[in-house]
Structure formats: C-alpha cells, structure tokens
C-alpha cells in the first residue's frame, strides 16, 4: 500500500525506529493452527500445513513472531488457565521442527458475557482491541509501523490497524459477517500462510527500495 511505504521512506532519515524490531503478529485459531473451538488438548493441535516454512521465512528475514489470541474459553470457564501451557508447549515442539521459535505469546482471557469472576468483563485486549499488540510492542521493543498482523477474521485486521500495523487477511472462509469499515479493510488478502509471508517480504523489499531512492 503506497501510503505505508511513503511513511517508511519518510522515516528513512534516521532509518527505521532505532533499536526497534519489526514483528509479525499471528492469530492462533484458524490462522496458525486448525480451529477447534475451546480445544486445549495438545494431541489435537494441528499446525496449518504451510505454517512452519512460512514462519521460518519471516523469522529468518528478521521479524519477531508474536502469537496474539483471544481465549474467551477462560472467561466462559471452559478450561483453566493452567490448561494453556500444554498447548504452548506443543506449538513450540511443532514449530521447532522447522527451526521456528515464537518470541512471545499474548492471550486475552476476557469476555464481557463470561461467567468467570475475574475474566467475565470488558477489556482493552480482546481483539478487535489492540491491547495485546501494544503490550507486546512495549515489552519486546517492536516497531509497529513495520509490523504486520496475519489473521483469519476481520477482528484481527481491525486490531492490527488499531495498533498501527499493516495486515494480511488469511482468507480461508473463517470470516462470515464481513462487517466493513476502513479499519477492517486488510492491506493484503492471502489464500495461504505461504502467500501471506511472501506478501510481507515483498512489501518490505519494496519499502527498502523506496528508502534507497529517497536518499
Ligand atoms: Mg482466528
Ligand atoms: Zn482482554
């Protein structure tokens, strides 16, 4: 998207924000893994077929990889917080087969209608709110303007844009409502994670070329 590239080029005087790394934020259910609602059984966790190689390309290109997931099952008391650790562990094992390490995992345990005494409330971190991305950016010193969010529904896209990132919609049929607004319009639409990774790397290459021309 030309506007974003121009913003990158405009910052070229001092280079990309000093010391800050770009990230690719990734939704979990339906994007990184096949979606089984409220599943916390590690034996049933399946990576999307091309997730390993696609994330390996992004990590090798210098992107931090940060998982961003709504876990309303906690608010609805479908499972306990401790049940998530085996899921993170199996994800680490499965991605490790491809040499990929997630830099961080952020989840929102809340839901406004949840029955859980602590988690049954509104919050600033349930996507489409950007709270998880903003927390990740502060903690891990991420350059949000050079970062991307890959997700399979428009709430992911909106969260990415609210945080100041660009976005790729992995269009695999998960989005069914298509409530539209400028914030919910993805910068790219991809049919696979392979394509999403290629789109992100192509945009970065183009931004690099534009920065060179501006110098
Ligand atoms: Mg999803
Ligand atoms: Zn939350």
From TrEMBL:
GO cellular component: cytoplasm
Cofactor(s) annotated in UniProt: Zn(2+); Mg(2+)
Residues marked Stabilizes the phosphoryl group (site): 69, 127
SUPFAM superfamilies given in the database record: HAD-like
InterPro entries linked to this entry: HAD-like_sf, HAD-SF_hydro_IIIA, HAD_sf, Heptose_bisP_phosphatase, Histidinol-phos
Pfam family, one: Hydrolase_like
An MF annotation (GO) of this entry: phosphatase activity
Keywords: Carbohydrate metabolism, Cytoplasm, Hydrolase, Magnesium, Metal-binding, Zinc
EC code(s) of this entry: 3.1.3.-
Subcellular compartments: Cytoplasm
Binding site for Mg(2+): 27, 29, 152
Primary localisation category: cytoplasm
Family under the similarity heading: Belongs to the gmhB family.
Protein name, entry field: D,D-heptose 1,7-bisphosphate phosphatase
Organism whose genome encodes this protein: Azoarcus indigens
Organism lineage: Bacteria, Pseudomonadati, Pseudomonadota, Betaproteobacteria, Rhodocyclales
